[in-house]
Amino acid sequence: xxxxxxxxxxxxxxNPQAPCVSLYQRTHRTHPDNAGDPIQFGxxxxxxxxxxxxxxxxxxxxxxxxxxxxxxxxxxxxxYTTDGLVCLSAPGFFRAYQVLRPMPNLAIVADSxxxxxxxxxxxxxxxxxxxxxxxxSVSLYExxxxxxxxxxxxxxVPRRASEVLGTDNTNLSDADAEKFMRAVDRALLxxxxxxxxxxxxxxxxxxxxxxxxxxxxxxxxxxxxxxGASAQTLSIEQLRERAWELVEPLYLQRLAELVxxxxxxxxRSQADSDLASIVQxxxxxxxxxxxxxxxxxxxxxxxxxxxxxxxxxxANPEVDDLLDDVAELVLRNGGEVVVxxxxxxxxxxxxxxxxxx
Length: 357
What we know:
It is built from eleven helices and 15 strands. By secondary structure, it is an alpha+beta fold.
């Protein structure tokens, strides 16, 4: 699977050539629930093909859908799914991501990728990572209040100290353990725990190993307080509970701060909930932070030349979710986007912007 944090941080998802295909699917971890996942994927693939056929030739369509067809026939892939699947395809570009959060079943063709459900996996204030570190091994987990899963580490991340030190000796000196941990910290920042995610990283380690790692880590998202035990001594549910106890106060504080900032900015006429006005502000780089309602979708497009908002239907191959497009504009111009549950939104328009000036 591809690395979502790396692609997001590099901007690889923001400037594709049209047409852009976005497939989202709720998947399942265990039998018998996962038996129907390939069938659902096939149905979504048919929806994409029908939508593309309204405007594009078979010669243009096939290169876009070929990677998805290969995935559809990959039996091993469908035996090891997580909670959600995201596939993005454009001319010369294909990415597939397995995510912890259940995804809505969506098949969208537009002139840009539909990214809001993905943004939620990266920008949600309630997501976190658990890093299990010992003197000679590492494991990474991703979770939220509802679940936790172990992450398959990218190829560039050392799993064992022997990969860094070139020896199988398990009785490591502090200097060797620090060398291993430095390599892990650098690789995780590159591949999994990029600061752009803003997801807190919680250490699950014995006290002496936790101290060693903290001394060498440069991860700004590392929480000051850890779980205080190795993940090997806890069940996955116990690990989730211990992690959420640490994250929940931060989650509630983060959402409260955003709502308070919006209220204060409104009093200075530096906040907005009008879609058309926010689009113009985003184009000008004036949006410092954007709160987007999690499950809300407003079909339409933004005229690239004028910035005018045009409402339409998602069945149109050139139409995406306007909230998604605004979020992309904000991110491109250095703003922050946070996907917020509907009950926590300060307005009912689906989005709330805080302006820089």
